[in-house]
Amino acid sequence: MVLGIIGMGFAWRYASTIWPVSRTIGDGLVIVATLVWALLALAFISRAVRFPHSVLQEMRHPVASSFVSLFPATTMLVAIGFVPWLRPLSLVLFAIGVVLQLSYAAWQSAGLWRGKHPNEATTPGLYLPTVANNFISAMACGALGFTDAGLVFLGAGLFSWLSLE
After folding, report:
1. Do residues 22 and 64 both lie within one domain?
2. How many structural domains does the chain have?
3. What are 3-55's pLDDT values in tens digits?
4. How far is CA 90 from each of CA 12, 42, 97, 140, rounded to the nearest angstrom?
5. Nearest residue to 82 via CA among 130, 143, 36
6. What's the burial of 74, exposed, middle or buried (CB within 10 Å: 0-12/13-18/19+)?
């Protein structure tokens, strides 16, 4: 939900720069997405604290493990959403998201490199931790003005994509 709502908010914000539409609708969508993200983040963190075995089981699952990476991805998208309003908060959310993204992608990739990933569990979800999250990191770097770091993340996402093909 967060991905779609915030994506529509970003699209509407951009549309307001080239067409005579109100930016307020885009900002409202970003706020709604942020609220949904906050609720889901609290639920995920609560589950991780109360039932850590459940989160570890999900992280070790050959298919479901890829979707855990949506937490840092959406965190970085929310960081992009806050850039026009609260840059310091954007920087904090970006730092949290990028550290989680890099850590989780490295951990999951290590498991793939060992060759123990079952063929029947090979789904498009495998692209999320390394490809999609690096592209989102590149977007966040661009929004925050970290151009060189953004190019590194863009390259990492591209090479991750090629390595999975």
Report:
1. no
2. 2
3. 999 999 999 999 999 999 999 999 999 999 999 999 999 999 999 999 999 99
4. 20, 18, 10, 9
5. 143
6. buried
